[in-house]
Specification:
Layout (H helix, E strand, L loop, with lengths): L1 E4 H6 L1 H9 L4 E5 L2 E6 L4 H11 L3 E2 L7 E2 L9 H9 L1
Parallel strand pairs: 1-2
Antiparallel strand pairs: 2-3, 4-5
């Protein structure tokens, strides 16, 4: 993991974006204090975006509204979670 100050990040943003594209995580510091983390987009994000782009899911930035055409077998997830907690 790389650590970079705000000033250097502003000066060399393209360099650090390229590192993130290649899987590197970058910690941003401000006056020596860690303040943020830049990470590559997750595989889950790409899968959800693919569903949205294909029209199988709708999302306006909040909680997803649902997925069309996907069937799940078995008990509802909430029920399974409650059972696992016991």
């Amino acid at each position: 993991m790389i650590s970079v100050g705000v000033k250097e990040l502003k000066e060399k943003l393209s360099k650090y974006v390229d590192k993130v594209k290649h899987g590197e995580r970058v910690i941003i510091t401000d006056r020596g204090n860690e303040v943020a983390l830049i990470t590559p987009l997750s595989e889950e994000y790409h899968k959800i975006k693919s569903l949205i782009d294909s029209g199988k899911a709708v999302w306006s930035g909040g909680k997803p509204e649902g997925v069309k055409g996907v069937k799940i077998k078995g008990k509802p997830v909430a029920e399974t979670v409650l059972e696992e907690r016991r």
